[in-house]
Amino acid sequence: MQSNLRHTGLIILTVFLLLLPVSGIRQGKTEFSTGYQQAPLVKIKPLLSGTISNSRPVEFLQFRTRQLSKDSPSASRLMLPPAPTPILQQKEKNILAGRGSAKILQAESNKVLNNVMISVSFANDIFNNTDHYFTNGMGIELVHPDISKLPLSGFLFPGTAGSEVLYGLQFAHNMYTPLNPDLKDISYGDRPFAATLSLSIYKISINHFKGSRISSGIRFGVMGPAALGSEIQSMIHDIEPQGWVHQVGNSIIVDYYIQYESDFLKSTKFSLSYLAGFNIGSLHNKANGGLVLRFGNEAGKRKLESKMSSGLNYAFFVRTQLNLIAYDATLQGNMFSSNSDYHLGNADISRATFFAQAGFSLNYQGINLSVEQNYLSPEFSEGLPHRWLQIKTSFAL
Known about the structure:
The protein is 15% helix and 43% strand.
């Protein structure tokens, strides 16, 4: 008897389910309908090997609800999701294809930032009570998205997928002198006088998902008397240095550089990253590797130039770096000709130097100030360690 009742109930339930798509049901003020014609075709790929076959598409039954009254007692009985939009459908396909939500977000953030900034920097060893070796540096930078349209931007390193990108131009002037720049005669065994004047186009790719940053650039310019080192230092000094008549000869600067940095320890107020890079060209041929420690609030420590956040952001940082030197034109002169009165030879160059940097950075409402103290071990056999301070300020436009 119970078996017959069970069979009868199953038959009634089956007939009810079969009639449901045809007739529809209206109960209270909530309507249910089926929509095979609207159901997306999705190929399900296996989440675990061998668990689900992906050889044929599967049609999903799409239920749609139309709420006719907010006060309907049946409104809270069943809250099914609305029909997926094309964007949601694509994300669902990407997830089922194994790409994951993190990579979807990466693709959405892969763009050239609209930041427009102007930066001015000044570096000098006078803050360390010296006046030799790297003795003065000045720079002006412009960050603008339209720089990406310049033809040379296509030669910059492409970066990683999902990065936010900044493009910039930098105008820079640097000067180098021996220990005593006031001597007119050549100081043999010491660093020669040298000056560089250059214009660089650069690209910075910041990947917040991987915690990485890639900088690349192309530098063009001149070294030698054409860089106006003697004239500029004469404007700064009360007594005009006499040794500039023996500076390294004129040469063209064409350099390409890449610098990679990636976090391997990170929290909301702390990060420790490693870096590696190289510079190849007529001015410098060298490679480097090192570590960077940062601590500060979350917006301050992760590349202030990537986003102009509101409020006060701060960061303290320490950087240590090993440089491997193949050629330095500011010490060895023009690598293609001997047009200098004096320069150091290959045997005099330190092939490995140690560089360290410590400082802080503040950012408030798009205005950034950074102060960096720098240290460099001897660059040549009879050289001394050297220190200088750099101050840089940036303004968001």
